[in-house]
C-alpha cells in the first residue's frame, strides 16, 4: 500500500513539475523569483522534517502520513487557484511542510513493519513506486501545462487526496499482517523510538547519512541542474540528448531495483553498500574526463544502477538500528538527502562558473567517495546476511 501511495504521489508531482515555472512566470516575475518558487518547496520540506519526525513519535505514522498528504493536496490545489505570486509562493512553502510529514511517516512505517530479512526488498519496492511515478508523470504534465498551467496543480491535488484515502483505508493496523508467520522478526508495537543521540553513536547510522547526502547531492541536485547544461554547452548536443541521458539513468535505476533489495537482504548490507557507492563514484568520475557523448550516456546508466542500491540499502540500515518507531531518526536520514539536494546544485553551479564543469563533477565525485569510505568502514557484522529468525540489531550495528 505504501508503494501504491508512493507511485500516486510521484506521478502527481511529475505532472505538476513542468507547470511550476510556467505558472510562476504568468505572474510577471523574473527568473530569480521562478527559481524561488521551485526551491521554496524543497527548503521548507528540509527545515520541517525534524518536526515531522517528532509528530510521528507522538501521533503515529498513519495519522501523520494522512495529515501530510492532505496538507500537500490542499496547498497544491489552492496554489493552482492563486491570484498573485506571494500567495502562490506561500502555498508552495506550506506544501513542503506536508511533504516532509508524509515522507518521514511513510518511511518510518515501512522500516518498522519490515522484518530484517525483507527490509531491503521492502525499501526497494517502495522506492520503485516513486521512480515509476516519476518517469510517467512529466510527460503528461507537459501536455497538461500546454492546456492550462493551473490544470496540473488541480490534478495533483486530486491524486494526493486519492493517496490519502488509500492510507486511511488500508493502513489501519500498526503491525503488518504478514509478520504473523515470523513474530520474532517484528519489533514490539509499543517499543519506544531509538534516541537520536544513540543513533549518532552508531557507525552504521553515520554511514547511511553520508551515503544519503551524496545521493541527494548528485541524484536530486547536480543531475537535474548541471547535467542539462553540460550536455548543451560542453558536449554541444541538444536538450534531447540530456533527456535521453536522464531517461537512461531512470530506466537503469528502475531495472536495478528489481535486484538491489534482494542483494541487500541475501548478500548483506555492507557489500551491497560498497558496490553501490563504488559504482556511483566511478560513474561520476567518468564526467571528469574529456567530454564525450558516449561517456555521458555510460555515466548516467551506471549511476542509475548505483542509485538502485543506494535507494534501498541505506534505508535498510536505518531500519536495522531503529526497528521501533523511528520518527526523528528517519527524519534526519531524509534531511541528509534533502541537504545534498539543496547544497549540491549551488556548490556545483558556483564551481562551474569559477573553474568549469570538470571541477564541479570532480567535487561531486569526492562527495560520493566519502560514502564509499564510510561503507568500507562499516563493521563486518553490518554486512552479514540478516538472520531468517529475525535477530535484532543493536544500535552499533552488531547482532545480539
From TrEMBL:
Query: What is the name attached to this protein's record?
Result: Predicted arabinose efflux permease, MFS family
Q: Which PROSITE patterns match?
A: MFS (PS50850), SUGAR_TRANSPORT_1 (PS00216)
User: SUPFAM superfamilies, from UniProt?
Assistant: MFS general substrate transporter
- Its principal location? membrane
Q: Which GO terms describe its molecular function?
A: transmembrane transporter activity
State the family named in the UniProt similarity comment for this chain.
Answer: Belongs to the major facilitator superfamily. TCR/Tet family.
Compartment(s): Cell membrane
Instruction: Print the keywords alphabetically.
Output: Membrane, Transmembrane, Transmembrane helix, Transport
Q: Which organism is it from?
A: Geodermatophilus sabuli
Domain Major facilitator superfamily (MFS) profile stretches = 1-383
Q: Does this entry carry the keyword Amino-acid biosynthesis?
A: no
List the PANTHER family.
GH10249P
Membrane topology category: Multi-pass membrane protein
Q: Transmembrane region positions? A: 29-51, 63-83, 89-111, 123-145, 151-171, 204-220, 240-260, 272-289, 295-317, 329-351, 357-378
CDD domains linked to this entry: MFS_MdtG_SLC18_like
Gene Ontology terms: cellular component: plasma membrane
Amino acid at each position: 500500500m505504501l508503494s501504491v501511495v508512493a507511485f500516486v504521489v510521484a506521478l502527481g508531482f511529475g505532472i505538476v513539475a513542468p507547470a511550476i515555472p510556467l505558472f510562476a512566470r504568468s505572474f510577471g516575475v523574473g527568473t530569480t523569483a521562478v527559481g524561488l518558487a521551485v526551491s521554496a518547496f524543497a527548503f521548507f520540506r528540509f527545515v520541517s522534517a525534524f518536526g515531522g519526525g517528532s509528530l510521528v513519535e507522538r501521533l503515529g505514522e498513519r495519522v501523520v502520513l494522512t495529515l501530510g498528504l492532505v496538507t500537500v493536496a490542499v496547498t497544491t490545489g489552492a496554489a493552482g487557484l492563486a491570484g498573485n505570486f506571494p500567495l502562490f509562493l506561500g502555498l508552495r512553502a506550506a506544501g513542503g511542510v506536508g511533504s516532509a510529514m508524509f515522507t518521514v511517516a511513510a518511511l518510518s512505517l515501512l522500516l518498522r513493519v519490515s522484518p530484517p530479512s525483507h527490509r531491503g526488498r521492502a525499501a526497494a519496492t517502495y522506492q520503485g513506486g516513486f521512480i515509476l511515478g516519476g518517469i510517467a508523470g512529466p510527460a503528461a504534465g507537459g501536455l497538461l501545462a500546454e492546456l492550462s498551467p493551473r490544470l496540473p496543480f488541480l490534478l495533483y491535488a486530486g491524486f494526493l487526496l486519492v493517496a490519502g484515502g488509500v492510507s486511511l483505508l488500508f493502513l489501519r493496523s500498526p503491525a503488518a499482517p504478514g509478520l504473523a508467520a515470523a513474530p520474532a522478526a517484528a519489533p514490539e508495537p509499543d517499543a519506544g523510538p531509538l534516541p537520536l543521540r544513540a543513533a549518532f553513536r552508531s557507525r552504521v547510522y553515520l554511514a547511511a547519512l553520508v551515503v544519503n547526502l551524496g545521493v541527494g547531492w548528485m541524484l536530486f541536485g547536480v543531475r537535474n541542474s548541471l547535467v542539462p547544461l553540460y550536455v548543451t554547452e560542453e558536449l554541444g548536443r541538444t536538450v534531447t540528448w540530456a533527456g535521453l541521458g536522464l531517461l537512461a539513468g531512470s530506466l537503469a535505476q528502475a531495472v536495478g531495483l528489481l535486484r538491489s533489495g534482494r542483494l541487500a537482504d541475501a548478500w548483506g548490507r555492507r557489500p551491497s553498500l560498497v558496490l553501490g557507492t563504488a559504482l556511483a563514484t566511478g560513474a561520476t568520475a567518468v564526467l571528469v574526463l574529456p567530454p564525450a557523448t558516449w561517456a555521458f550516456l555510460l555515466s548516467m546508466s551506471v549511476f542509475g544502477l548505483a542509485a538502485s542500491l543506494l535507494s534501498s540499502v541505506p534505508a535498510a540500515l536505518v531500519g536495522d538500528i531503529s526497528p521501533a518507531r523511528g520518527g526523528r531518526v528517519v527524519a534526519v536520514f531524509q534531511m541528509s538527502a534533502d541537504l545534498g539536494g539543496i547544497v549540491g546544485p549551488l556548490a556545483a553551479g558556483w564551481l562551474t562558473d569559477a573553474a568549469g564543469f570538470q571541477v564541479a563533477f570532480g567535487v561531486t565525485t569526492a562527495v560520493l567517495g566519502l560514502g564509499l569510505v564510510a561503507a568500507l568502514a562499516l563493521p563486518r557484522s553490518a554486512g552479514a546476511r540478516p538472520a531468517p529468525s529475525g535477530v535484532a540489531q543493536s544500535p552499533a550495528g552488531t547482532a545480539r
